[in-house]
Structure formats: structure tokens, C-alpha cells
């Protein structure tokens, strides 16, 4: 297999979701048919993700992206030795590409899947039924408007708890590209278009998350300015992703990506609400509301809904030279 073919696979795997769009996956072509996956440790979120849980979920999603890309071309991945760690790189997994793969039905929506952070169209009864049909072994779905409203409030409270931490806000701002002239606007992190912010909203966010936060917090304005719960309450539903409590986050990451692709295949847009899973109190409440057992871990949650007509913003992704090591 030529190097060029594997580069096409890497480019497709890069469409996978990653926390704050840091894109931690680094790839190396090995010999004639091998490929190794590393974590680029410089993109680790020291404050938001000190134990590397979200990085591992992101890497699991990238690995699943590689598996889907290989399957599209009739190739399968056979595990080989995990590559050794190197400076700034943690060895994650190694594979050989062999000829007996087949296309996964979800591969058809890989290109279309993208975070949708604007509001959704007002849901119809049929939309709510379609949302409920997404229920699976590892996906619970909440569509009752009263429960959605309650969880929306929980979401705002949980995300504000994270936002109050100066170090968390500083790290998040470091990955935000609020000005189109930012050199990495189209490369990584979260740009204003991806966050569905107008120019004025982006300038406001720079202030609220930056120098004005303490003052706004003191006068009780920071929280309402950051609140997003209304978008949760007005969606078609909330999809709660849960996995066995002791599962490695890398393995959960592959399932996370597959669930998001199922949501896309059902014609829904989705935005991740990580704070609902990361805040222990919110995770417990959501598990109760969605009937999820104590042996399961709430890994993540998505608000889903129908996207109103209009263009999706272009994706920000690292160029291939940054991800090949
Ligand atoms: C572990 C993890 C946590 C995430 N948390 C959030 C979140 O809290 N809010 C959000 O809007 N997106 C979240 N995302 C989605 C990423 O920001 C998104 O995948 C990334 O920006 C790439 O953009 P795309 O999904 O449009 O391809 C998360 C993704 C992962 C893998």
C-alpha cells in the first residue's frame, strides 16, 4: 500500500471530533502497510483535562475514524505493538492494514457530521419520536420538555461552575479563535463561526471570559451572559451516552463517535454538553432522569435537533504536516 493511500486515511480520520478541537491524534506511517497512533502531548489540556480522559476519548474517536476510512476502501486494521513513547508523543496504538475490510454503514455520514452550536428548529412531534428512536444499549434519550428544561438549568449551573475557575477560562480562551485574523482560525480550537457567534458576540465572549469576568460575576451578570441552557430546552431531545463504569476512555471514544454518526444519519444536528457528564452532581441527576443504572458511567451528552436551512461553517483542521510525525 502506498504512502499516499495512508495519508488519505489520516485525513479522513482527522474529521473525528476532539475536545476543544485540539486534535490530539498524531500518525506515523510504518513500513509498507503499518500505521501508528500517538497522542501529541502539547495539546493536552492541563487544567480542563488533567488526567487525559477527554484526550483519550478524542483519540478513540480518531482511531474509529481510521477504522471507518480503512473500511471504506475494503481495508481492515489488525492490531500490532503499541509504539513507544517519544518526547512530546505518547504511543497509543499500532495497526497493519490488511485487505479484508468492508465499508461500515455509518461511513456515509462522516463528512457531514459537525458540531451544531446554533439553536435548532422548533421540534415537531415527529422529531421527538425520531429522537427517541436513537435509544440504544449505550444511549438514553430524554424528550420530555419539562425534564429537558430542568436538565438545561443543570447544564448552565455545571458549566458555570467550571467557568468560575480562572485557570479553566484562560485555557479555554487559549483554544478560542474569536477574531478571524487569528493565525490558527481555520486550523484548530474553536473559532467564532464554529461556536455560532456573531462578531459582536465574539467580542463580548472575549470580555466575559477574559478581563471583565470577575466584575460581571460580582454583579451577577457573568452567569446569564454565558448561559446556553435555553438551546437545550428547545431542541428535539437530549441523548445521554453511557458506558460500563470501568471501560477505558479510549474505547468509549470509538463508541462516542459512532453514536454521533448515528445521530447524524438520523438527520439531526448535535452539540456536545460535556459539563453535564463532567460535573458529578449533574451526571447523577441526568442518570436518574434517563433511567441509567449505577454500573454505567455517563460519558457525555448531546443536545440534538433539526438544523434550520443554511450553511455549516467550514471545519477547522490541522494540515496533514502537523498530524504526521
Ligand atoms: C471529549 C469531548 C468533549 C467535548 N466537549 C464539548 C463541549 O462541552 N461543548 C461543545 O460544544 N463541544 C464539545 N465537544 C465537541 C468538540 O468541540 C468538536 O468535536 C470539535 O470542536 C471539532 O468540531 P466538529 O465536531 O465540528 O468536527 C467535545 C468533544 C469531545 C471529543
Structure description:
By secondary structure, the protein is an alpha+beta fold. It folds into two domains: 3-105, 3-Layer(aba) Sandwich (NADH Oxidase), CATH 3.40.109; 125-305, NADH Oxidase (3-Layer(aba) Sandwich), CATH 3.40.109. The protein has 13 helices and ten strands. The protein has helices at residues 3-13, 53-72, 125-132, 145-163, 166-175, 199-208, 213-218, 222-226, 229-233, 249-265, 274-278, 280-290, 320-323; strands at 25-30, 34-40, 76-80, 89-98, 139-142, 176-177, 190-191, 237-244, 269-272, 296-305. The strands form three sheets. Strands 1-2-4-3 form a four-stranded antiparallel β-sheet. A four-stranded antiparallel β-sheet has the order 5-8-10-9, sandwiched between helices. A hairpin with an 8-residue loop joins strand 3 (76-80) and strand 4 (89-98). Helix 2 (53-72) crosses helix 10 (249-265). The protein starts with a helix and ends with a helix. The model has no long low-confidence stretch (mean pLDDT 96). Bound molecules: flavin mononucleotide (FMN). Flavin mononucleotide binds next to helix 2 and strand 9.
Which features does this protein show?
325 residues; alpha+beta; NADH Oxidase; 4-stranded antiparallel β-sheet; 13 helices; 10 strands; 18% strand; binds flavin mononucleotide
Rg over CA atoms, rounded to whole Å, is 20 Å
**Helix and strand pattern:** HEEHEEHEHHEEHHHHEHEHHEH
- What CATH first level of the largest domain would be assigned? Alpha Beta
What is the end-to-end distance?
A: 19 Å
The ligands found in this model are: flavin mononucleotide
How many distinct folded domains? Answer: 2
The unreliable regions are none
Q: pLDDT average, as an integer? A: 96
The side-by-side strand order for the widest beta sheet comes to: 1-2-4-3
Strand content: 15-25%
Q: Helix- and strand-based class?
A: alpha+beta
Amino acid at each position: 500500500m502506498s504512502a499516499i493511500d495512508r495519508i488519505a486515511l489520516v485525513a479522513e480520520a482527522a474529521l473525528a471530533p476532539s475536545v476543544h478541537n485540539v486534535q490530539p491524534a498524531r500518525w506515523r506511517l510504518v513500513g509498507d502497510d503499518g500505521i501508528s497512533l500517538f497522542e501529541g502531548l502539547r495539546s493536552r489540556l492541563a487544567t480542563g483535562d488533567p488526567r487525559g480522559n477527554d484526550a483519550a476519548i478524542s483519540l478513540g474517536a480518531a482511531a474509529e475514524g481510521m477504522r471507518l476510512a480503512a473500511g471504506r476502501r475494503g481495508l481492515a486494521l489488525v492490531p500490532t505493538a503499541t509504539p513507544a513513547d517519544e518526547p512530546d508523543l505518547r504511543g497509543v496504538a499500532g495497526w497493519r492494514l490488511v485487505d479484508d475490510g468492508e465499508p461500515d454503514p455509518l461511513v456515509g455520514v462522516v463528512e457531514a457530521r459537525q458540531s451544531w452550536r446554533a439553536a435548532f428548529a422548533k421540534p415537531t412531534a415527529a422529531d421527538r419520536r425520531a429522537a427517541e428512536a436513537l435509544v440504544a444499549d449505550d444511549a438514553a434519550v430524554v424528550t420530555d420538555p419539562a425534564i429537558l428544561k430542568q436538565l438545561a438549568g443543570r447544564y448552565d449551573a455545571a458549566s458555570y461552575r467550571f467557568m468560575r475557575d480562572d485557570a479553566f477560562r484562560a485555557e479555554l480562551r487559549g483554544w478560542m479563535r474569536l477574531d478571524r485574523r487569528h493565525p490558527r482560525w481555520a486550523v484548530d480550537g474553536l473559532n467564532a463561526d464554529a461556536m455560532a457567534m456573531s462578531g459582536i458576540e465574539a467580542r463580548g465572549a472575549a470580555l466575559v471570559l477574559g478581563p471583565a469576568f470577575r466584575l460581571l460575576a460580582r454583579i451577577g451578570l457573568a452567569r446569564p451572559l454565558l448561559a446556553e441552557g435555553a438551546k437545550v430546552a428547545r431542541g428535539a431531545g437530549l441523548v445521554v451516552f453511557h458506558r460500563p463504569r470501568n471501560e477505558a476512555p479510549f474505547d468509549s471514544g470509538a463508541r462516542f463517535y459512532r453514536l454521533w454518526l448515528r445521530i447524524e444519519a438520523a438527520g439531526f444536528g448535535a452539540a456536545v454538553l460535556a459539563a453535564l457528564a463532567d460535573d458529578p452532581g449533574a451526571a447523577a441527576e441526568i442518570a436518574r432522569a434517563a433511567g441509567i443504572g449505577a454500573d454505567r458511567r455517563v460519558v457525555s451528552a448531546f443536545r440534538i435537533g433539526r438544523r434550520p436551512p443554511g450553511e455549516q461553517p467550514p471545519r477547522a483542521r490541522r494540515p496533514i504536516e502537523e498530524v504526521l510525525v
